[in-house]
Amino acid sequence: MLIAALLAACGSDSSTSVVATSNARGTLMHDPPPRLASLTAAALTGELQSSTSGQQLLELAGTPACGVDFYYITYWTVGAAADPATATGALMVPTGAGAQCSGKRPIVLYAHGTTFDKNYNIADIANPANTEGALVAAMFAAQGFIVVAPNYAGYDASSLQYHPFLNADQQSKDMIDALAAGRTALPHTFGATASDSGELFITGYSEGGHVAMATHRALQALGQPVTAAAPMSGPYALEALVDAVFYGNVLIGSTAFSPMLVNSYQFSYGNVYKAPSQLYEPTFATTAVALLPSTTPLLTLFANNQLPESALFSNTPPATGNAALNQLLAVPSNPIFAAGFGPDNLITNDYRLEYVLDAVASPDGAIAGLPGAPVAANPQFPFRQDLKKNDLRNWIPHAPVLLCGGDKDPIVLYPVSTGAMAEYWGQFPLPPGLITIVDVNAPVTSASDPFAPLKTAFQQTFQQMVAQEGQVAAIESYHSTVAPFCTAAARAFFSQLL
Amino acid sequence: MQAKNVVTALGALYLCASPLAQAQTAPGLDNQVRIGMYYVHYFPKADDISGPFVPPGLNVGIQDVETLYLAYVRSLSPNWNLELAIGWPPLTRTEGKGPQYVGSVPYNGQVLSTARWFAPTLLLNYVFLDESNRLRPYVGLGVNYTRFYSRQSTAAGDAVSGGPTHLSLPSSVGPAATVGLAYHVSSRWSFYASYSVSQVHSKLTADTAGLIRTTDVEFWPTALVVSAAYAF
After folding, report:
1. Could B209 and A38 be called an inter-chain contact, meaning their C-beta atoms sit closer than 8 Å?
2. What are the tens digits of pLDDT across the range A154-180?
3. Using one digit for the tens of pLDDT, what is the confidence trace for A197-217?
4. Is the separation of the CB atoms in A57 and A138 below 8 Å?
5. pLDDT tens for residues A373-389?
6. What is the ipTM score, two decimals?
7. Any bridge partners for residue B82, and if so which?
8. Nearest-CA distance from A302 to chain B in Å?
9. Closest residue in chain B to residue A17, using alpha carbons only
10. Are B164 and A14 inside 8 Å of each other by CB?
11. Which residues in chain B have their CB less than 8 angstroms from residue A10's CB?
């Protein structure tokens, strides 16, 4: 009786967010999603000022006008075979009393660059290694843009056991699903003072540049509005870029990028190889398969000899009996590219030769210098067919596009990426202003060049790096050096459309 | 504030008891009920909170509570009795211990959660001296059972955790001990003052949209009790 009386005062326990029962694409799994961090504008400024890189970012991005709340979204998307899969990402919401921090705000859908860390989570702003998250927060969210940024299927807590790297169809679906989940979550965030204005900007860097463009293309095909897009330093002309690599222009990081791409396409299409030993040298035929992304640091994988550090191809190229072909396969004189050749290499001579023979038989227009830089007409080698399938030289945007990059990029070669895409679009009579190309390393075109300050700032930064670290080290970090300058260019481009 | 309340209560006990101090415990009155106040202070020992996206150094404390004390005592012999004590389930408040802010969210000193404790304690007491004495000290050992219910994450707790949060705090069974002093006013009426401690251990688990954060907590509640008793 007493116990009954005592417990009669029971209230119910507090409950957590609602868990979705549907696995339909774009479904937010936890509504509302958890907030991982909340920083006022002053706190964000303080965080950035506490490091040299943060101070440099503040100079480019400007003092935060808004605070930022970082939410961790989990949503349903699909794998490469349209199989249901979960993925995670970030929803960054501007906070504060300022007019640009509340009310109806534009959304930036952001695609991050390649990471080999399977645990990568762009929403975890407290992680010092999450520099791209800090860049996006400072550049966009702290200036009043709502940001949705997926971690991609295959990363973090995703249920997918591989990452569909540079799979245009899957990754654009992943982005669209993250956007849907972010829009679902937005009204249920703390305070919910910022809401969706309906304006949608898409951007991303490196791998994310490709993903951003593929997403723009997909949304346009679906008839969904896109305000503008700014893909940055992405391998849009994917076939041309990989052809260039197989011709000997081995990119920095190729011994990691290649297994990522092979792993993705082998899971997606099952045709990159019949057996791993067809592609990989015996030393790596078992270790490189399905290795990346990994929870083990890349340097440890190198140290454990699970991947070679730089030698993608043999420094004894295949002898074909054809002098012209031998010349194509020779170790290049450029020391950056030559570093991709060595005795303990990753990819077999036979595989490289088969690839190059197909590239010669059905050349990529950007490599062959054909007008309009078209993709290969009729590639027969399965891996090249996969690359053509994911090459983005097959559409014309309706909404304004800014392509930004740096012409000395040793990871995503500018001429066969941004340059090839610009040439492809350049053959069409497009409205003035639809396509804007920015090479941050190019000279300032005129006094009215809107990107003149960014170009000047980048070039000064690069020259300082050359002076301090030497030419080789500065080139090795060129790709990441370009990122904040192009992101600032993207924000300026978006802002003029608001 | 709490100390002042205790002194006031003991003073009241003295004032009430002195003019009536004429009789001792009467044989044959083997049952007794007590009513009084618990003044509970906690000496919590908790691991730092662990789990995803938790910065280091976050810990928790418990605010003191006062609540109604109720007990039934069965005399087993002139010197032994069995006490079933229970407090009206108090609303306990867990507060943050650690940095002032987590990001820009206030933490230290914020009431993060509340829960009610249903915490009966069964004690076997040994009462010194014989029944003719008005003042009889006693000691006891026993077992405490604590069930936590109505567990609520507060708005401040939700802000720190990152959203609506479900709390789990499993029941605890642990030893308890007490020392006390009885003052027999008459054959039926007595006053008691005691000091008790019990071991209450649980694992606090917070679920915020699937993010599970935990900490093991030893609460170590100590209770000063003043009560009036009626034998029958």
Report:
1. no
2. 999 999 999 999 999 999 999 999 999
3. 999 999 999 999 999 999 999
4. yes
5. 999 999 999 999 999 99
6. 0.89
7. B74, B124
8. 29
9. B209
10. yes
11. 116, 149-150
